[in-house]
Give the backbone structure.
Amino acid sequence: AQPNPCCMGTAAGEMLAVITGFIEESLSDRQYFLAIARQGPAWARQKLRAIADDEAGHARRLLAVHYLITGQCYRPAVHHGPVCVGQWCAALRERYHLEACSGFNYARSADGTTDPCLSRLFNELSADEYRHADTILRLLERSLQG
């Protein structure tokens, strides 16, 4: 094995705090989307569960990346308590902004690393987060229709 591989090596190691933050955020987002799916209207539940599944997938990919970089398993510190969703439209509004910000943060992280594989992954996750924001916007549009 190369002491400093071109992918998931030293350059990616400089992003470990960012990666662990994204893991925690993805797992927290998953919990929230599952809660809002249980409490939201029936017509929105499948789309919200799909976003929750995507968030779980993001966490799994980032956990694998953490292992590739460090050779150690990362144990997330996600709290498993009740999630208060509040009013439906307000919850969608909040989630829209959080997903769009996540998309921006992944894109910014992609630009902030010299590791080509990590940059590519962050760009993929950014696109997913923006897609989630678009889905939430469509759910909000339907909710406000009248």
In short: The two ends are 61 Å apart (CA to CA). The mean pLDDT is 92.
